[in-house]
Amino acid sequence: MRVRVLVPDVSAGGMSRAYALALVVDKLRHEVEIRGPAIQAAEIYPKPPPGLRVRPFRSLLREGLLASAGSAGGADVLLAVKPQPGSLGVALRQRSQSGAPIILDIDDWEPVGFGVGGRQAPSVADRARGLLRSARRLGDPNHSVYNRWIQRFVHRADAITAPTRVLAEKFGATLLPQARDTEVFDPSHFDAEACRRALGLEGFGVLLFPGTPRPHKGLEDVLRALERVGRPELRLVVAGGRETAFAKELAQREKRWLVELPRRPAHEMPAVVAAAHLVVVPQRDVPAARSQFPIKLTDAMAMAKPILTTRVGDVPEIVGDTAYLVAPSHPEQLAAAIEEIFANPAAAELQGERARKRCVERYSLEAVGRTLAPILEDVARRRNSARAR
What we know:
The chain is α/β, with parallel strands linked by helices. The chain contains 17 helices and 13 strands.
């Protein structure tokens, strides 16, 4: 089967989820290709894992939304990541020409217009500036205006998948967890101390956040917790994320406890996670966070790292009894957990080992493939039946 994974922006939108899904498809021994426009930048971000083929559209209109019948063909199934014009819009256009069925994967609420929240209400001046910036970005085909418009077409997909129960219930989707290649993310391939030396983190107690800092992700709560703990060797290390205004502000304001590592391609992330003593995923209780399955959880679980996270959305169900769970937006609880983890490293290591076992059983490529395989087969069978008629 030839599966085309369509993403809204190869330079920004949904690539981590797209890579995970593409790896699952590849593990199922189907032919897979990732396509999408390059809107925010010319380069693909993050870089794909070795072996995955990514082909950007030179022009979203000419090669995507207005593609000829010839260029739209070649796929047996279209897997659109996020309900956005650059993915679902292109998929609908290609289905109209080739007949290939669409699986729509919805992995968060942001493109559906719910926003990320997590801060106090903006002032009138802030709202005005935001509206002006938004108007200037109307040339972006994945602008929120167009995202809201395309929601009316969500249920035209032949199947819908989502990684969390909140999204699955909202869209009538099949639950499809985040997947991680547990053969690549394997702690037996790495020496933690050597990884810390290579990253310039030798001598530190590393609390790792692998991702892009945003207000709803709770990093400020971890920083307040570190102030309470007061151990001078501890550092919150942010790695692998994009440059955002919030990330820059946080880095300038929190130099005492925060270390930022340069961006790295996806295939280098296992070595980064290997350097951690502890992975922190301190989600705040806001709509965007409730709908998310943070892929950083599977990173940490696969690498057998202790995890400190919050009781938000599906997170408690994802990690089960293999992580340290606290209430969201409670730095004092985070501080107590950090003290417990560093005071009892053997117990923390055991939690990490249990987390890896859970990841292999539930979130490995093979495990997620057992859910995706019948969905692929069903939509392909329905298309073939329709053609026969």
